[in-house]
Amino acid sequence: MPNQKTAVVLFNLGGPDSPDAVRPFLFNLFNDPAILRIPGVFRTPLAYLLARRRAKPAGEIYEILGGKSPLLENTQAQARAIEAALGDLGEVKAFIAMRYWHPMSDETAEQVRQFDPDRIVLLPLYPQFSTTTTASSEKMWFQAAKAAGLDKPTVTVCCYPTEPGFIKAAAGLIRSGIEEAGAHGKPRVLFSSHGLPKKVVQAGDPYQWQCERTAEAIVRELNVPDLDWVSCYQSRVGPLEWIGPSTDAEIERAGADGVPLVVVPIAFVSEHSETLVEIEVEYRELAHEKGVPHFVRVPTVGVEDGFVQGLARLVRQAVAGEVKMCSQAGGRICPDGFQGCPQRAGQASRGQPAAAGQTKRPLAAE
Ligand SMILES: C=CC1=C(C)c2cc3[nH]c(cc4nc(cc5[nH]c(cc1n2)c(C)c5CCC(=O)O)C(CCC(=O)O)=C4C)c(C)c3C=C
Ligand SMILES: [Fe+2]
Ligand SMILES: [Fe+2]
After folding, report:
1. Domains delineated in the chain
2. Among 76, 109, 287, 302, which is 20 to 30 Å from 187 by CA?
3. 69 close to ligand 1 (CB < 6 Angstrom)
4. Which atom of ligand 1 has the smallest separation from the CA of 57?
5. Ligand 1 center to residue 363 CA distance, Å?
6. Would you say 21 and 103 are in contact if contact means Cβ atoms under 8 Å apart?
7. Given the CA of residue 193, which atom of ligand 1 is nearest to it?
8. What is the pTM of this model?
9. What's the pLDDT score for residue 202?
10. For residue 40, what pLDDT band results from cuts at 50, 70 and 90?
11. In this predicted model, what pLDDT tens digit does every residue of 286-298 receive, in sequence order?
């Protein structure tokens, strides 16, 4: 099929591109029914109020980054790397559809229509599936594609929490962090993912379960005897109870235990406010305050060759129909029929997420 034209659409969250964009970006985020799960008549005014309240602290975060999020530039670099890795597929163009800031699905669907591909692969830059991220982006994409009159065979990669290229790339980056921290004592590795409200997971979202599979797969790949590690969750916002343990509680515990820390973001695949400010600035400061002897932030996989080759493999499998469909109706594919996929979310995640403090479990055979 090398003479076919393939559009790969990368899903990501988006981030403000100027100080003035912070509030409307936050409004779009809080007005997403996948994020704020209340009827639209209440959600929209509440989203307005929440965006107004959050604009100041969020603006201060983006100020540290020069007034904007670097997420788009980093996602563009990934798009170019994926195109380069898929030269064997014929004409391939990678597009970006952000959920909460530009370029959003409607703009991207119009660009894809002009490209006139034979097929479209929707590829989330979220290794772990969540109703708040991948499903929300997918829903928005299909609405926008319909409005743009874009009607081409389309398949979505649902998730890839243990994709070998992703896992090897992450492990490679972590090894030097462990070595650096090891000069200051026996290090503890914190696999830190973006958190979710507990009720989202209780409703069947497989995200937490998949984050834990990612952490376990990296630990297995690292193969460090007696490695001290924990899976934990950052970025809590709002009054609801979120899944735990929280990354800040784990930093405090490391201070009390006097162990150096290696903090690894596993649900983000490029740098942005959550890694460059929350981990690098805020958690580093907290670690210092709490007496953690040394703090290492491991970078995200970004355009690491192993990760990009892994994404390219997922696209090849998707176009070749070589992967099991996890949802025939949605046309969504699940690499290797991954157990935590949304189709099986009810069985896979309910009852399975670890309670706080119990996230380090024996490695389960998959
Ligand atoms: C794995 C990825 C993400 C999940 C799951 C997720 C859920 C989620 N997020 C919020 C609220 C906010 N998130 C914000 C920033 C942000 N979130 C993600 C990823 C996930 N979010 C990323 C990559 C970013 C950074 C964007 C950038 O800087 O470019 C923000 C804005 C920043 C801030 O005010 O702290 C909010 C708010 C909720 C409520 C939620 C699940 C319900
Ligand atoms: Fe978020
Ligand atoms: Fe799946």
Report:
1. 5-161+305-344 (3.40.50.1400), 164-297 (3.40.50.1400)
2. 302
3. yes
4. 34
5. 29
6. no
7. 1
8. 0.91
9. 87
10. very high
11. 999 999 999 999 9
13 CA distance to ligand 2 middle (Å): 8
Q: Is the peptide bond before 103 cis (omega within 30 degrees of 0)?
A: yes
Report residue 189: phi and psi, to 5°.
Answer: -100, 125
ipTM associated with this complex: 0.93
Using the structure block, give the residue that is written with the tokens 């081409």.
Answer: 152
Q: Which ligand lies nearest the alpha carbon of 193?
A: 1
Closest ligand, as measured to the CA of 53 = 1
Which one of the ligands is nearest to 267 CA? 1
Q: Distance between CA 340 and CA 321 in Å, rounded?
A: 20
Q: Is the preceding omega at residue 245 within 30 degrees of 0, hence cis?
A: yes
354 lines ligand 1 (CB under 6 A): no
Q: Is-contact 216 227, C-beta < 8 A?
A: no
Residue ranges of E strands in the chain: 5-12, 91-98, 119-124, 154-157, 188-194, 228-234, 261-265, 295-297, 325-327, 332-333
Neighbours of 113 (CB within 10 A): 16
Per-residue model confidence as pLDDT tens digits over 255-286: 999 999 999 999 999 999 999 999 999 999 99
